[in-house]
Specification:
CATH topology of the largest domain: Rossmann fold
Distance between the termini: 47 Å
CATH class of the largest domain: Alpha Beta
Strand content: 25-35%
Helix content: 25-40%
Bound molecules: adenosine-5'-triphosphate
Number of domains: 2
Number of helices: 11
């Protein structure tokens, strides 16, 4: 096995800017990709994700700002040790899978025998053991995607910059890919991956950067981003819970009733811990006066909602 490249403490993207003619595709974008963490990069079509990743990798000129590798400017050597999966998948269709991966690994500086060992292991773990000697073009798109990711992962990269690595993968492949990426974060590697699959990003990433119109709209852990959203609770009583409107009348009471449907209501609290607790206590005591409470539980805000609010 290769001894690999040393990961940076973090990659810092600082006020990166890129224009295409009059269009400012990436507009003073700043965020951090900490070592040992998976950072999800989300944003609608044309938000500027690919352009940002290309600038991080130095394959596209930077018009403003910079990329820092720990506490210094990123270098060509740092970039060479980074596993990059570009948007334009660059595999040779007619070459055999393993042969091609070994060739690419050798370009990174691995010896033929090291490359063969590592590539074979990855292909086996990704369920491609029986397809190693087939040409890339004979594989399904999802399997080609697995090969493409393997190309980024070999040679123990110091960082991973992956443009839509999960697109087109079946759920089992997503899980094995996520396990592989976790092995790299366990070595301290910073991982940045773009995706349109918000449920998957929510499940896999430690941090999140939301981009819209070439600008960062939100950045943080999913929990940090949720803290900025209103706290919602589901109230389930034994019978009709219309009484929640007495606890939280319109315009007062420290929150509001969003919905009442028979024995279930959804209420939104103000987000002030002390005051919220008082409202919850009032709901509990009112429910017990009215026959009892079946459930009083917070509703976890789905990432899709945070995303919608951040990009609205
Ligand atoms: N080579 C180019 N020439 C001109 N405009 C470009 C070029 N590449 C990208 N753009 C524009 O820059 C903006 C950002 O594009 P980019 O590909 O970075 O977005 P993205 O977030 O990766 O989108 P998607 O999710 O659709 O891949 C878009 O408006 C796009 O049309």
């Amino acid at each position: 096995m290769s001894t690999g490249h040393t990961p940076p403490t973090a990659i810092h993207v600082e006020e990166l800017t890129r224009r295409y003619g009059d269009l400012v595709a990436v507009d003073q974008v700043s965020f951090t990709v900490p070592g040992g963490q998976m950072t999800g990069f989300v944003g609608g079509n044309g938000a500027g994700k690919t352009t940002t990743m290309r600038m991080i990798m130095g394959v596209l000129g930077i018009h403003g700002g910079r990329v820092r590798w720990g506490d210094r400017e990123i270098t060509t050597t740092d970039r060479r040790g980074t596993g990059y999966m570009p948007e334009e998948r660059g595999l040779y269709p007619k070459q055999k899978v393993r042969e091609q991966l070994i060739y690419l690994a050798q370009l990174k500086g691995m010896s033929a025998s090291e490359a063969k060992g590592e590539v074979t292991e990855y292909l086996e773990r990704l369920g491609l053991a029986e397809r190693m000697d087939d040409t890339v073009e004979s594989l399904s798109l999802g399997n080609q995607q697995r090969v493409q990711i393997t190309a980024a992962l070999v040679d123990q990269p110091s960082a991973l910059i992956l443009d839509e690595p999960f697109s087109g993968l079946d759920p089992a492949a997503v899980d094995s890919m996520a396990d592989l990426l976790r092995e790299h974060t366990a070595r301290g590697v910073p991982v940045l991956f773009s995706s349109h699959q918000l449920d998957l990003v929510d499940r896999l990433c430690d941090r999140l950067v939301i981009l819209a119109g070439g600008q960062v709209r939100a950045e943080g852990t999913p929990d940090e981003l949720r803290q900025g959203t209103a706290l919602r609770y589901r109230v389930v009583g034994v019978s009709d819970v219309g009484w929640v409107r007495d606890v939280l009348p319109d315009g007062g009471g420290g929150g509001r009733v969003l919905d009442v449907d028979g024995s279930t209501a959804v209420v939104e609290l103000a987000g002030d811990p002390g005051a919220d607790q008082q409202v919850l206590d009032r709901l509990v005591s009112e429910a017990s006066r009215r026959g009892g409470l079946r459930e009083l539980a917070p509703i976890i805000t789905p990432l899709s909602e945070i995303y919608r609010e951040a990009t609205a």
